[in-house]
Amino acid sequence: MASVLMMTRLVLPGMMSGRSSSSKAGGAIVNLASVLAYYPLPHFGVYCATKAFVKSFSESLRWELSGMGVTVQTLTPFVVTTNMTDYTKFTATHGVLIPSASTYVTCALSTLGHAGCTTGYWPHGLQVRLESSDDVDDVGGVVVKARQTTTTTRIITTTTHTSFYRAPVALLAPDDVTGASMWGDWGPNQQCPEFTFASAFSLKVENNQIMFDSTALNGVSLVCRAGRRHGSVVGNVTSTVAPWGKWKATRECLPGEFLVGMQVRMEGMSASLLDNTATNDLNMSCEGGGVLNGGGEKWGSWGKWKKCPRGSAICGITTNVQEPQGPMLDDLALVTLRMDCCSL
């Protein structure tokens, strides 16, 4: 937003002073927004808001400068193939609906002087017209419906959360050799926004309480990233989180890598007569083979590695958590978990 304002303030005076009485051709200002300027999208709130600002500011400026020889245009494209969209084959391969950057620029330039606010690319304009029908959800619906022909995306709405859901290609879960899962309740499945994947994680851990009840692992948070080397972090997702402990430092894969495997350290339910802790720690592996330890507690033993199929990465999480048992009783906190693998 700041760059749009500063650039306008920098170039506009020169355009205005360069006009002559014989010509009104003072120049053109073209600001790039996004189709998300029209639609709120879960997990992309800041991005949508900034694009809405660019669109609103540009349209206001266009009317203010009407008849003064300066053309102001706003572009609101759908997806365009760039380095920021190379995180999945669907957005990295250009075609009719997803043009290359050069194709988009060529088409957008041809609209200059003919349209004040446009997608700049006729297939994108057609998408907007098609998605303006009544059966499109208000929140993120335009993006979801546009992709339903090629994916299994849908909107899930609960009383507290609205999120995208992708049908995973695999579920990663530790072998329940301890029988611990019967002690907790499964929380909601939470996934990274579509076309984003987990590249880092952090654990909420209660350290050894020595003479008092210990719960060890209380929660897991996945850090979602859009794209690889040029992608940005778009947020975190967690399922149910127990109330004890503190969040550990974030463990992150090397730039350009996503998480693809997990290994759980779990204590058997019969290991202690008074203080069971169930899941204690979590290792996660990255695409390049690196292993990240979450920094949990040391009770129990490590289970087998569970890894996503080739061509997929971790995109979501569901946790099984025991609710607080009350004073003088043994709390388990996070009992077990499973993670979703989605196609890259």
Shape: elongated
The CATH architecture term of the largest domain is Aligned Prism
Helix proportion: 10-25%
Spans where pLDDT lies below 50 across 5 or more residues: 20-25, 132-163
Number of structural domains: 2
Approximate strand percentage = 25-35%
| Secondary structural class | alpha+beta
Q: What summary fits the major beta sheet?
A: 5 strands, antiparallel
How would you describe the overall organization of this protein?
The model is unreliable at about 20-25 and about 130-165 (pLDDT under 50). Strand 1, helix 2 (about 45-65) and strand 2 (about 70-75) form a beta-alpha-beta unit. This protein has about 350 residues and is α+β, with helices and mostly antiparallel strands. The chain is elongated, with a radius of gyration of 25 Å. The longest helix has 20 residues, at about 45-65. Helices cover about 20% and strands about 30% of the residues. It folds into 2 domains: about 20-155, NAD(P)-binding Rossmann-like Domain (Rossmann fold); about 170-344, Vitelline Membrane Outer Layer Protein I, subunit A. GO terms for molecular function: oxidoreductase activity. One of its GO terms (cellular component) is extracellular space. It holds the Pfam family adh_short. Keywords: Oxidoreductase.
Task: Name the features.
Rossmann fold; elongated; 344 residues; Vitelline Membrane Outer Layer Protein I, subunit A; alpha+beta; 2 domains; VOMI_sf; single chain; 5-stranded antiparallel beta sheet; 19% helix; oxidoreductase; 6 helices; NAD(P)-bd_dom_sf; Sc_DH/Rdtase_CS
